[in-house]
TrEMBL record:
Pfam families: ATE_C, ATE_N
Keyword annotations of the record: Acyltransferase, Transferase
Stated name of the protein: arginyltransferase
Organism: Zygosaccharomyces rouxii
SUPFAM superfamilies: Acyl-CoA N-acyltransferases (Nat) (SSF55729)
Database matches in InterPro entries: Acyl_CoA_acyltransferase, N-end_Aminoacyl_Trfase, N-end_Aminoacyl_Trfase_C, N-end_Aminoacyl_Trfase_N
E.C. designation(s): 2.3.2.8
Family: Belongs to the R-transferase family.
Biological process per Gene Ontology, one example term: ubiquitin-dependent protein catabolic process via the N-end rule pathway
Keyword Acyltransferase found: yes
UniProt domain N-end aminoacyl transferase N-terminal: residue ranges: 18-113
GO MF annotations, alphabetized: arginyl-tRNA--protein transferase activity
Protein backbone atom coordinates (compact mmCIF):
# COMPACT_ATOMS: atom_id res chain seq x y z
CA UNK A 1 0.00 0.00 0.00
CA UNK A 2 2.95 2.35 0.60
CA UNK A 3 3.58 2.68 -3.15
CA UNK A 4 0.02 3.67 -3.96
CA UNK A 5 -1.04 7.16 -4.92
CA UNK A 6 -3.61 8.01 -2.24
CA UNK A 7 -5.73 10.95 -3.39
CA UNK A 8 -9.18 12.49 -3.50
CA UNK A 9 -11.21 12.54 -6.67
CA UNK A 10 -10.30 15.57 -8.82
CA UNK A 11 -11.51 19.10 -8.11
CA UNK A 12 -11.96 21.95 -10.57
CA UNK A 13 -12.05 25.51 -9.22
CA UNK A 14 -13.09 28.53 -11.26
CA UNK A 15 -13.09 32.06 -9.89
CA UNK A 16 -12.88 35.68 -10.95
CA UNK A 17 -9.49 36.80 -12.26
CA UNK A 18 -9.45 39.39 -9.49
CA UNK A 19 -8.53 36.46 -7.21
CA UNK A 20 -5.51 35.46 -9.30
CA UNK A 21 -2.40 35.55 -7.11
CA UNK A 22 -0.30 36.79 -10.00
CA UNK A 23 -2.17 39.35 -12.12
CA UNK A 24 -5.13 40.02 -9.77
CA UNK A 25 -7.13 40.84 -12.90
CA UNK A 26 -5.10 44.02 -13.42
CA UNK A 27 -3.35 43.37 -16.73
CA UNK A 28 -3.26 46.61 -18.76
CA UNK A 29 -4.09 44.79 -22.00
CA UNK A 30 -7.17 42.55 -21.79
CA UNK A 31 -5.83 40.53 -24.72
CA UNK A 32 -3.21 39.15 -22.34
CA UNK A 33 -5.91 37.43 -20.27
CA UNK A 34 -6.72 35.09 -23.16
CA UNK A 35 -4.73 31.98 -24.05
CA UNK A 36 -5.68 32.12 -27.72
CA UNK A 37 -6.06 35.33 -29.72
CA UNK A 38 -9.25 34.31 -31.54
CA UNK A 39 -11.09 34.05 -28.21
CA UNK A 40 -10.04 37.58 -27.31
CA UNK A 41 -11.14 38.82 -30.73
CA UNK A 42 -14.51 37.11 -30.35
CA UNK A 43 -15.32 38.69 -26.99
CA UNK A 44 -13.74 42.04 -27.80
CA UNK A 45 -15.93 42.41 -30.87
CA UNK A 46 -19.05 41.17 -29.07
CA UNK A 47 -18.46 43.58 -26.16
CA UNK A 48 -20.17 41.01 -23.94
CA UNK A 49 -18.04 41.67 -20.86
CA UNK A 50 -16.92 38.04 -20.67
CA UNK A 51 -13.31 37.49 -19.68
CA UNK A 52 -10.86 34.76 -18.82
CA UNK A 53 -11.10 33.20 -15.36
CA UNK A 54 -8.85 31.96 -12.58
CA UNK A 55 -9.05 28.19 -13.11
CA UNK A 56 -7.23 25.38 -11.30
CA UNK A 57 -7.71 21.64 -11.07
CA UNK A 58 -6.13 19.18 -8.69
CA UNK A 59 -6.42 16.59 -5.95
CA UNK A 60 -5.83 16.41 -2.23
CA UNK A 61 -3.01 13.90 -1.78
CA UNK A 62 -2.44 11.81 1.33
CA UNK A 63 0.41 9.72 -0.06
CA UNK A 64 2.59 10.13 -3.15
CA UNK A 65 5.95 8.52 -3.82
CA UNK A 66 8.77 10.91 -4.67
CA UNK A 67 9.16 9.12 -8.01
CA UNK A 68 5.49 9.68 -8.79
CA UNK A 69 5.68 13.35 -7.83
CA UNK A 70 8.67 13.69 -10.14
CA UNK A 71 6.47 12.50 -13.02
CA UNK A 72 3.63 14.80 -11.95
CA UNK A 73 5.93 17.84 -12.00
CA UNK A 74 6.64 17.04 -15.62
CA UNK A 75 2.90 16.81 -16.32
CA UNK A 76 2.48 20.41 -15.17
CA UNK A 77 1.55 19.76 -11.53
CA UNK A 78 2.93 21.52 -8.47
CA UNK A 79 2.11 21.11 -4.83
CA UNK A 80 1.01 23.44 -2.07
CA UNK A 81 1.46 21.34 1.03
CA UNK A 82 -0.55 18.21 0.24
CA UNK A 83 -2.65 19.72 -2.55
CA UNK A 84 -1.49 18.77 -6.07
CA UNK A 85 -2.67 21.25 -8.67
CA UNK A 86 -2.22 22.45 -12.23
CA UNK A 87 -3.79 25.43 -14.02
CA UNK A 88 -6.27 25.18 -16.87
CA UNK A 89 -4.09 27.00 -19.37
CA UNK A 90 -6.95 27.51 -21.82
CA UNK A 91 -9.31 29.33 -19.45
CA UNK A 92 -6.91 30.72 -16.87
CA UNK A 93 -5.90 34.37 -17.01
CA UNK A 94 -2.18 33.54 -16.72
CA UNK A 95 -0.22 30.95 -18.71
CA UNK A 96 1.78 29.04 -16.10
CA UNK A 97 4.38 26.90 -17.84
CA UNK A 98 6.55 24.35 -16.05
CA UNK A 99 10.15 25.55 -16.44
CA UNK A 100 13.36 23.64 -15.80
CA UNK A 101 17.00 24.38 -16.47
CA UNK A 102 20.53 23.09 -15.92
CA UNK A 103 23.89 24.66 -15.15
CA UNK A 104 24.80 24.27 -18.83
CA UNK A 105 21.71 26.19 -19.95
CA UNK A 106 22.20 29.19 -17.67
CA UNK A 107 23.21 32.36 -19.42
CA UNK A 108 25.39 33.97 -16.74
CA UNK A 109 24.55 37.66 -16.78
CA UNK A 110 26.34 40.66 -15.32
CA UNK A 111 23.58 40.85 -12.71
CA UNK A 112 24.24 37.25 -11.63
CA UNK A 113 27.97 37.89 -11.38
CA UNK A 114 27.30 40.99 -9.29
CA UNK A 115 25.01 38.98 -7.01
CA UNK A 116 27.68 36.34 -6.36
CA UNK A 117 30.39 38.95 -5.81
CA UNK A 118 28.20 40.91 -3.39
CA UNK A 119 27.56 37.72 -1.44
CA UNK A 120 31.27 36.90 -1.50
CA UNK A 121 32.15 40.33 -0.12
CA UNK A 122 29.64 39.95 2.72
CA UNK A 123 30.59 36.47 3.92
CA UNK A 124 34.20 35.87 2.91
CA UNK A 125 36.90 37.34 5.16
CA UNK A 126 39.45 36.95 2.39
CA UNK A 127 37.55 39.15 -0.04
CA UNK A 128 39.59 42.26 -0.93
CA UNK A 129 40.13 44.64 -3.80
CA UNK A 130 42.25 42.08 -5.64
CA UNK A 131 39.42 39.55 -5.51
CA UNK A 132 37.11 42.07 -7.15
CA UNK A 133 39.01 41.90 -10.40
CA UNK A 134 37.37 39.70 -12.99
CA UNK A 135 39.08 36.37 -13.46
CA UNK A 136 40.10 35.41 -16.94
CA UNK A 137 37.91 32.79 -18.57
CA UNK A 138 34.24 31.95 -18.02
CA UNK A 139 32.59 32.85 -14.73
CA UNK A 140 32.01 29.57 -12.88
CA UNK A 141 29.28 30.48 -10.39
CA UNK A 142 29.22 26.95 -8.94
CA UNK A 143 32.88 27.04 -7.99
CA UNK A 144 32.65 30.66 -6.82
CA UNK A 145 29.84 29.73 -4.42
CA UNK A 146 31.64 26.63 -3.15
CA UNK A 147 34.91 28.49 -2.58
CA UNK A 148 33.19 31.40 -0.85
CA UNK A 149 31.13 29.29 1.53
CA UNK A 150 34.02 26.96 2.32
CA UNK A 151 36.17 29.89 3.45
CA UNK A 152 33.47 31.81 5.31
CA UNK A 153 33.45 31.87 9.10
CA UNK A 154 30.14 33.74 9.44
CA UNK A 155 27.88 32.06 6.87
CA UNK A 156 26.70 28.49 6.43
CA UNK A 157 23.62 26.57 5.39
CA UNK A 158 22.11 23.38 6.74
CA UNK A 159 19.79 20.91 5.07
CA UNK A 160 17.24 19.42 7.45
CA UNK A 161 13.77 17.81 7.43
CA UNK A 162 10.94 20.09 6.32
CA UNK A 163 9.39 20.36 9.77
CA UNK A 164 7.94 23.24 11.75
CA UNK A 165 9.83 25.38 14.25
CA UNK A 166 8.90 28.68 15.87
CA UNK A 167 12.09 30.23 14.51
CA UNK A 168 11.13 29.30 10.95
CA UNK A 169 7.62 30.64 11.36
CA UNK A 170 8.88 33.97 12.74
CA UNK A 171 11.07 34.41 9.66
CA UNK A 172 8.15 33.45 7.39
CA UNK A 173 5.88 36.00 9.09
CA UNK A 174 8.50 38.74 8.77
CA UNK A 175 9.02 37.95 5.09
CA UNK A 176 5.33 37.74 4.19
CA UNK A 177 4.47 40.99 5.95
CA UNK A 178 7.44 43.03 4.72
CA UNK A 179 7.80 41.71 1.18
CA UNK A 180 4.26 40.65 0.24
CA UNK A 181 2.19 42.84 2.60
CA UNK A 182 0.50 39.61 3.72
CA UNK A 183 -0.74 39.63 7.31
CA UNK A 184 -3.25 36.81 6.84
CA UNK A 185 -1.13 33.96 8.18
CA UNK A 186 -0.54 31.90 11.31
CA UNK A 187 1.63 29.02 12.43
CA UNK A 188 -0.93 26.49 11.21
CA UNK A 189 -1.08 27.96 7.70
CA UNK A 190 2.72 28.09 7.52
CA UNK A 191 2.94 24.43 8.49
CA UNK A 192 0.27 23.44 5.98
CA UNK A 193 1.93 25.42 3.17
CA UNK A 194 5.65 24.78 3.66
CA UNK A 195 6.02 21.83 6.04
CA UNK A 196 3.22 19.40 5.22
CA UNK A 197 3.89 17.12 2.26
CA UNK A 198 2.14 14.11 0.71
CA UNK A 199 5.16 11.86 1.16
CA UNK A 200 5.49 9.06 3.71
CA UNK A 201 6.71 9.94 7.24
CA UNK A 202 9.89 7.95 6.58
CA UNK A 203 10.65 9.99 3.47
CA UNK A 204 9.92 13.29 5.21
CA UNK A 205 12.10 12.38 8.18
CA UNK A 206 14.97 10.90 6.16
CA UNK A 207 18.02 9.30 7.74
CA UNK A 208 21.08 10.77 9.40
CA UNK A 209 23.19 9.37 6.58
CA UNK A 210 21.08 11.12 3.95
CA UNK A 211 21.32 14.49 5.68
CA UNK A 212 25.05 14.10 6.35
CA UNK A 213 25.65 13.34 2.68
CA UNK A 214 23.56 16.29 1.54
CA UNK A 215 25.26 18.73 3.90
CA UNK A 216 28.59 17.59 2.48
CA UNK A 217 27.63 18.52 -1.09
CA UNK A 218 30.60 20.87 -1.51
CA UNK A 219 33.08 18.03 -0.91
CA UNK A 220 34.63 17.17 -4.32
CA UNK A 221 35.35 13.62 -3.15
CA UNK A 222 31.70 12.85 -2.46
CA UNK A 223 29.70 11.51 -5.40
CA UNK A 224 26.90 9.48 -3.80
CA UNK A 225 23.76 11.18 -2.49
CA UNK A 226 20.77 9.10 -1.39
CA UNK A 227 18.36 11.80 -0.30
CA UNK A 228 15.03 12.18 -2.11
CA UNK A 229 12.08 14.06 -0.67
CA UNK A 230 11.32 17.47 0.86
CA UNK A 231 13.94 19.57 2.62
CA UNK A 232 14.48 22.91 4.27
CA UNK A 233 17.86 24.46 3.59
CA UNK A 234 18.38 27.02 6.36
CA UNK A 235 20.76 29.93 5.75
CA UNK A 236 22.66 31.25 8.81
CA UNK A 237 24.64 34.50 8.90
CA UNK A 238 26.42 35.66 12.06
CA UNK A 239 24.44 33.05 13.97
CA UNK A 240 21.03 34.24 12.73
CA UNK A 241 18.57 32.39 10.51
CA UNK A 242 18.26 34.72 7.51
CA UNK A 243 16.64 32.53 4.84
CA UNK A 244 14.96 29.18 4.18
CA UNK A 245 14.88 27.40 0.84
CA UNK A 246 11.96 24.98 0.69
CA UNK A 247 12.74 22.34 -1.93
CA UNK A 248 11.82 18.85 -3.08
CA UNK A 249 14.75 16.66 -4.07
CA UNK A 250 13.51 14.45 -6.89
CA UNK A 251 15.23 11.67 -8.85
CA UNK A 252 15.48 13.94 -11.91
CA UNK A 253 16.33 17.20 -10.17
CA UNK A 254 15.72 19.73 -7.41
CA UNK A 255 12.28 21.36 -7.41
CA UNK A 256 12.03 24.81 -5.85
CA UNK A 257 8.90 25.16 -3.70
CA UNK A 258 9.36 28.52 -1.95
CA UNK A 259 12.08 30.83 -0.67
CA UNK A 260 11.89 32.98 2.45
CA UNK A 261 14.44 35.64 3.34
CA UNK A 262 14.91 38.25 6.02
CA UNK A 263 14.16 41.72 4.57
CA UNK A 264 16.99 43.14 6.68
CA UNK A 265 19.39 41.34 4.35
CA UNK A 266 17.79 42.48 1.11
CA UNK A 267 21.09 43.88 -0.19
CA UNK A 268 22.44 40.33 -0.48
CA UNK A 269 19.87 39.50 -3.22
CA UNK A 270 19.26 36.17 -1.53
CA UNK A 271 16.48 35.21 -3.94
CA UNK A 272 18.82 35.42 -6.94
CA UNK A 273 21.58 33.75 -4.98
CA UNK A 274 19.33 30.85 -3.95
CA UNK A 275 18.53 30.01 -7.58
CA UNK A 276 22.23 29.89 -8.45
CA UNK A 277 22.98 27.85 -5.34
CA UNK A 278 20.22 25.34 -6.07
CA UNK A 279 21.45 25.01 -9.64
CA UNK A 280 24.94 24.36 -8.32
CA UNK A 281 23.68 21.87 -5.76
CA UNK A 282 21.62 20.04 -8.41
CA UNK A 283 24.72 19.42 -10.47
CA UNK A 284 26.86 18.45 -7.48
CA UNK A 285 24.39 15.86 -6.14
CA UNK A 286 23.95 14.35 -9.61
CA UNK A 287 20.46 15.65 -10.31
CA UNK A 288 20.20 16.79 -13.91
CA UNK A 289 17.51 19.46 -13.72
CA UNK A 290 16.50 22.40 -11.59
CA UNK A 291 12.71 22.85 -11.60
CA UNK A 292 11.86 26.49 -10.96
CA UNK A 293 8.09 26.10 -10.68
CA UNK A 294 5.97 28.05 -13.15
CA UNK A 295 7.10 30.60 -15.72
CA UNK A 296 4.58 33.35 -16.54
CA UNK A 297 5.68 35.47 -19.49
CA UNK A 298 3.87 38.69 -18.49
CA UNK A 299 4.41 38.52 -14.71
CA UNK A 300 7.62 40.12 -13.35
CA UNK A 301 7.41 37.95 -10.22
CA UNK A 302 7.64 34.86 -12.43
CA UNK A 303 9.29 35.77 -15.74
CA UNK A 304 12.69 36.46 -14.13
CA UNK A 305 13.16 32.68 -14.30
CA UNK A 306 13.79 33.03 -18.01
CA UNK A 307 17.12 34.68 -17.16
CA UNK A 308 18.35 31.25 -16.07
CA UNK A 309 17.71 29.76 -19.53
CA UNK A 310 16.12 26.37 -19.78
CA UNK A 311 13.04 24.73 -21.21
CA UNK A 312 9.26 25.07 -21.03
CA UNK A 313 6.88 22.11 -20.98
CA UNK A 314 4.76 21.74 -24.11
CA UNK A 315 1.87 20.52 -22.01
CA UNK A 316 -0.18 18.91 -24.78
CA UNK A 317 2.77 16.84 -25.96
CA UNK A 318 4.49 16.04 -22.63
CA UNK A 319 7.69 17.35 -24.18
CA UNK A 320 10.05 20.17 -23.33
CA UNK A 321 11.21 22.82 -25.76
CA UNK A 322 13.82 25.58 -25.32
CA UNK A 323 12.31 28.78 -23.95
CA UNK A 324 14.04 30.68 -26.75
CA UNK A 325 12.09 28.60 -29.32
CA UNK A 326 8.66 29.72 -28.09
CA UNK A 327 9.32 33.29 -26.89
CA UNK A 328 7.32 34.73 -29.79
CA UNK A 329 4.50 32.21 -29.41
CA UNK A 330 3.97 32.98 -25.71
CA UNK A 331 4.24 36.77 -26.05
CA UNK A 332 1.20 38.50 -24.55
CA UNK A 333 0.64 35.45 -22.32
CA UNK A 334 -0.42 33.13 -25.10
CA UNK A 335 -0.61 29.33 -25.08
CA UNK A 336 1.36 27.16 -27.49
CA UNK A 337 1.11 23.63 -28.88
CA UNK A 338 3.90 22.42 -31.15
CA UNK A 339 3.47 19.90 -33.95
CA UNK A 340 5.29 18.71 -37.04
CA UNK A 341 1.88 18.73 -38.77
CA UNK A 342 0.78 22.32 -39.47
CA UNK A 343 -2.79 21.14 -40.08
CA UNK A 344 -3.29 19.25 -36.82
CA UNK A 345 -6.74 20.01 -35.35
CA UNK A 346 -7.13 17.31 -32.68
CA UNK A 347 -5.61 17.16 -29.23
CA UNK A 348 -2.63 14.76 -29.07
CA UNK A 349 -3.21 11.53 -27.15
CA UNK A 350 -1.24 11.37 -23.91
CA UNK A 351 -1.80 8.05 -22.13
CA UNK A 352 1.25 6.23 -23.47
CA UNK A 353 3.41 9.29 -22.94
CA UNK A 354 2.28 9.62 -19.30
CA UNK A 355 3.55 6.07 -18.72
CA UNK A 356 7.11 7.16 -19.49
CA UNK A 357 9.50 10.02 -18.89
CA UNK A 358 8.91 13.50 -20.26
CA UNK A 359 10.58 13.83 -23.64
CA UNK A 360 12.32 16.74 -25.38
CA UNK A 361 11.46 18.01 -28.85
CA UNK A 362 14.47 17.01 -30.96
CA UNK A 363 13.99 19.52 -33.82
CA UNK A 364 11.90 22.33 -32.30
CA UNK A 365 12.92 24.79 -35.01
CA UNK A 366 10.98 22.88 -37.67
CA UNK A 367 7.74 22.67 -35.68
CA UNK A 368 4.51 24.64 -36.04
CA UNK A 369 2.35 26.27 -33.37
CA UNK A 370 -1.10 24.71 -33.89
CA UNK A 371 -2.85 26.21 -30.87
CA UNK A 372 -5.49 28.04 -32.97
CA UNK A 373 -6.23 24.86 -34.97
CA UNK A 374 -6.98 22.94 -31.78
CA UNK A 375 -8.17 25.44 -29.16
CA UNK A 376 -9.21 28.55 -31.10
CA UNK A 377 -12.80 29.68 -31.66
CA UNK A 378 -13.02 27.30 -34.63
CA UNK A 379 -10.64 24.75 -33.12
CA UNK A 380 -11.24 21.07 -33.64
CA UNK A 381 -10.98 19.99 -30.00
CA UNK A 382 -14.42 21.14 -28.85
CA UNK A 383 -16.68 19.22 -31.23
CA UNK A 384 -14.60 16.05 -30.89
CA UNK A 385 -14.79 16.29 -27.09
CA UNK A 386 -18.54 16.96 -27.10
CA UNK A 387 -19.17 13.98 -29.38
CA UNK A 388 -17.07 11.79 -27.08
CA UNK A 389 -18.93 13.10 -24.02
CA UNK A 390 -22.25 12.17 -25.62
CA UNK A 391 -21.08 8.64 -26.40
CA UNK A 392 -19.68 8.18 -22.90
CA UNK A 393 -23.01 9.32 -21.46
CA UNK A 394 -24.78 6.57 -23.42
CA UNK A 395 -22.53 4.11 -21.59
CA UNK A 396 -23.60 5.49 -18.20
CA UNK A 397 -20.48 7.59 -17.73
CA UNK A 398 -22.12 10.97 -17.08
CA UNK A 399 -20.24 13.41 -19.27
CA UNK A 400 -22.32 15.87 -21.28
CA UNK A 401 -21.99 18.34 -24.11
CA UNK A 402 -20.98 21.84 -23.10
CA UNK A 403 -24.11 24.00 -23.03
CA UNK A 404 -22.34 26.79 -24.88
CA UNK A 405 -19.24 26.68 -27.05
CA UNK A 406 -17.22 29.25 -25.12
CA UNK A 407 -14.14 29.00 -22.91
CA UNK A 408 -15.34 32.00 -20.88
CA UNK A 409 -18.75 30.54 -20.16
CA UNK A 410 -19.69 26.93 -20.90
CA UNK A 411 -23.13 27.45 -19.36
CA UNK A 412 -22.60 24.96 -16.55
CA UNK A 413 -21.92 27.34 -13.67
CA UNK A 414 -19.11 27.18 -11.13
CA UNK A 415 -20.77 25.35 -8.24
CA UNK A 416 -19.93 21.77 -9.24
CA UNK A 417 -16.29 21.47 -8.17
CA UNK A 418 -16.13 17.90 -9.47
CA UNK A 419 -16.99 18.86 -13.05
CA UNK A 420 -13.95 19.23 -15.31
CA UNK A 421 -14.55 20.91 -18.70
CA UNK A 422 -14.59 18.59 -21.69
CA UNK A 423 -11.50 20.26 -23.15
CA UNK A 424 -8.52 21.00 -20.90
CA UNK A 425 -4.99 21.16 -22.37
CA UNK A 426 -2.60 18.67 -20.80
CA UNK A 427 -5.30 16.16 -19.84
CA UNK A 428 -6.08 13.04 -21.83
CA UNK A 429 -8.67 14.10 -24.43
CA UNK A 430 -12.19 12.75 -23.85
CA UNK A 431 -11.96 11.08 -27.25
CA UNK A 432 -8.98 9.07 -25.93
CA UNK A 433 -10.99 8.13 -22.83
CA UNK A 434 -13.83 6.96 -25.09
CA UNK A 435 -11.43 4.74 -27.03
CA UNK A 436 -10.23 3.20 -23.77
CA UNK A 437 -13.82 2.45 -22.77
CA UNK A 438 -14.74 0.98 -26.16
CA UNK A 439 -11.57 -1.11 -26.32
CA UNK A 440 -11.97 -2.20 -22.67
CA UNK A 441 -8.55 -0.76 -21.78
CA UNK A 442 -10.21 1.11 -18.92
CA UNK A 443 -10.97 -2.30 -17.38
CA UNK A 444 -7.31 -2.63 -16.48
CA UNK A 445 -8.26 -0.78 -13.30
CA UNK A 446 -10.15 -3.94 -12.26
CA UNK A 447 -8.56 -5.69 -9.27
CA UNK A 448 -5.89 -3.00 -9.18
CA UNK A 449 -7.40 0.39 -8.34
CA UNK A 450 -8.64 0.81 -4.78
CA UNK A 451 -11.49 3.03 -3.58
CA UNK A 452 -12.27 4.41 -0.18
CA UNK A 453 -15.99 4.59 -0.78
CA UNK A 454 -17.43 7.18 1.60
CA UNK A 455 -20.98 6.01 0.81
CA UNK A 456 -20.32 2.66 2.50
CA UNK A 457 -17.41 3.70 4.71
CA UNK A 458 -14.77 1.15 3.76
CA UNK A 459 -11.95 0.41 1.35
CA UNK A 460 -12.60 -1.89 -1.60
CA UNK A 461 -11.13 -2.92 -4.92
CA UNK A 462 -12.62 -1.90 -8.22
CA UNK A 463 -13.56 -5.41 -9.34
CA UNK A 464 -15.60 -4.62 -12.44
CA UNK A 465 -15.49 -1.11 -13.90
CA UNK A 466 -18.57 -1.75 -16.04
CA UNK A 467 -20.65 -2.60 -12.95
CA UNK A 468 -19.68 0.49 -10.98
CA UNK A 469 -22.13 3.35 -10.46
CA UNK A 470 -22.07 6.20 -13.00
CA UNK A 471 -20.52 8.47 -10.36
CA UNK A 472 -17.63 6.09 -9.72
CA UNK A 473 -17.05 5.43 -13.41
CA UNK A 474 -16.81 9.15 -14.12
CA UNK A 475 -14.43 9.67 -11.18
CA UNK A 476 -12.20 6.90 -12.53
CA UNK A 477 -12.25 8.43 -16.02
CA UNK A 478 -11.44 11.88 -14.64
CA UNK A 479 -8.43 10.46 -12.81
CA UNK A 480 -7.25 8.77 -15.99
CA UNK A 481 -7.61 12.14 -17.74
CA UNK A 482 -5.35 13.75 -15.15
CA UNK A 483 -2.77 11.04 -14.48
CA UNK A 484 -2.98 8.41 -17.23
CA UNK A 485 -4.21 4.83 -16.93
CA UNK A 486 -1.18 3.24 -15.27
CA UNK A 487 -0.95 5.84 -12.51
CA UNK A 488 -4.70 5.51 -11.88
CA UNK A 489 -4.41 1.72 -11.65
CA UNK A 490 -1.86 2.20 -8.87
CA UNK A 491 -4.03 4.58 -6.85
CA UNK A 492 -6.31 4.56 -3.84
CA UNK A 493 -9.01 7.16 -4.37
CA UNK A 494 -11.34 8.70 -1.81
CA UNK A 495 -14.76 9.09 -3.43
Amino acid sequence: MTERLIISEPYYFSDSISHCGYCKGQKPDKNDNFAVKSWYDKHSEAKDGLDAQNCTLGVQAELVSVEMYDRLCNMGFRRSGKFLYKPDLLRNCCRMYTIRTTTDQVRVSKDMKTCVKRFKKAVSPEYNQENKKDHKGPFNFTQEIIDTESKSDNFYTKFEPAVYSDEKYRLFAKYQESVHNDFDHNAKSFKRFLCDAPFSPEVIRGTKQEWDQLNDWKNPERSHFERVGPAHECYYYNGNLIAIAVIDILPSGISSVYFIWDPEYGKLSLGKLSALRELAISSKINRKHYYMGYYIQDCPKMNYKGKYGGELMDLCNYRYTPLTRVEKEIDHSKFFVLSDDPNLTNEPHLNERFSGTADVWQTPGSLHNVVENIYGVNGGAFKVADDAAEQLSRREIPYSRELTHDICNDGNGKNDIYRIPNVVPGLLPLEEILQMVLQKKINLVNNSMVLFDTSVGHIRLVVDFDSESPKIKKAVCDLVRLFGLQNTMDSLVIV
